[in-house]
Design brief:
Helices cover 40% and strands 15% of the residues. The protein is of the alpha/beta class. The protein has a four-stranded parallel sheet, with helices on both faces. Helix 2 packs across helix 5.
Length: 149
């Protein structure tokens, strides 16, 4: 494959589905906006009461519906509004991450991170980094298989 072909196959505007918990990372996103921090606009935010409410099927559906990447954000450990929700999220999504890798999804396409209400700058940084990493990959499913392998 020539360099020109490789460059044209890069994903110039990846679609990212972003799941945010209402109590911490959602407030961090609000802070990033009210602080006028710059972050990508091609991120679709979906607010949930707790990151533990995100079913692995939601992530799979996002990829099946055309997302190039999925980012899950929640409260830091020990700060969950619902006490242990983020621990449940961590365990569940660690398993999903391994499964996605086994079926050929590039690990750069799925991330989970913890953002507090006071971390607007971290929110902007994480979303920007994810979009920049996805730009280096071809659009998801470009190879006709629906995966990266």
């Amino acid at each position: 494959m020539s360099k020109t072909t490789q460059i044209t196959e890069l994903n110039s505007n990846p679609n990212v589905v972003l799941f945010l918990c209402r109590w911490c990372s959602g407030k961090g996103a609000d802070l990033a906006g009210t602080s006028r921090l710059h972050y990508p606009t091609n991120v679709l935010p979906i607010m949930v009461n707790c990151s533990s409410r995100i079913d692995p099927q939601h992530v799979v559906e996002a990829f099946l519906e055309g997302a190039d990447g999925v980012l899950i954000t929640g409260c830091h450990f020990g700060d969950c509004h619902y006490k242990t929700g983020n621990y449940k999220t961590f365990r569940r999504m660690a398993l999903l991450s391994r499964l996605l890798k086994q079926v050929g999804v590039n690990p750069k396409r799925f991330r989970i991170t913890w953002i507090s209400a006071t971390e607007g700058a971290k929110f902007a940084k994480i979303t920007t980094e994810m979009v920049e990493d996805l730009k280096k990959l071809p659009p998801y499913g470009k190879n006709g298989k629906g995966g990266d392998s």
